[in-house]
Amino acid sequence: MADELIFYTNPMSRGQIVRWMLEEVGAPYETRLLDYGTTMKAADYLAVNPMGKVPAILHAGRAVTECAAICAYLADAFPAAGLAPAPAERAAYYRWLFFTAGPVEQAITAKQFGFEPASDQQRMAGFGSLAAALDALEGAVAGKAHVAGDRFSAADVYVGSQIDWGLQFGTIPSRPAFEAYVAPLRERAAYKRAKAIDNGLIAEMQAANPA
Questions:
Q1: In terms of pTM, does the model score above 0.90?
Q2: How confident is the model at residue 211 (pLDDT cuts 50, 70, 90)?
């Protein structure tokens, strides 16, 4: 099909972000599950994503990788879903979508790997410090239902996923602004559908490969 949409993922991955976005979009899509170290590194998938990582999508034969890019792409590719602001109103949309994908995730990853830039190194690191990145993120969502404008957008899928995931696994500290921002996102029908699908797949994987 000319508009075929294929989703490559593993349910225990950042693919959960894109699953939520796809459920918000509402267009039909095919899921292809990949395993770490095997099918994720196979030649046919490396042709889609040379990094051998998930998630990725193919839409009408065109590959898109990286969660934030996929969210932004899908918002534009399926405008009827209303997941992107008007072009003239996208300043905050792009700002916080890519701030969270860049500095916030970099800072969290660095901390998880035991690296914290010294004060004289922070000017060279795009994220500065984890504290600075999280303070900026808190300011972006504090007192707001949506991170960009007055309605839900793809930026909320990505930013919301990162905060939701961080709160769940302790990589983002619990703060009132973060908790208040994600609480209504967790009640969205598409979020619940996506979680149900991926949790079901995880359960199947665990049953097939008991510890």
A1: yes
A2: low
Q: What is the mean pLDDT of residues 99-105?
A: 96
Q: Is residue 112 located within the same domain as residue 173?
A: yes
Say how many residues make up the chain: 211
Q: Are residues 118 and 182 in the same domain?
A: yes
Provide the 3-class DSSP secondary structure of residue 195. Answer: helix
- Looking at the fold, whether 78 and 94 belong to one and the same domain comes out as no
The reply to whether 112 falls in a domain is yes
**Nearest-angstrom CA–CA distance, 90 and 98:** 12
Domain that holds residue 164: 87-190
Exposure of 88 by Cβ count < 10 A (0-12 exposed, 13-18 middle, 19+ buried)?
A: exposed
DSSP symbol at 43: H
Residue 50 φ/ψ, nearest 5 degrees: -60, -20
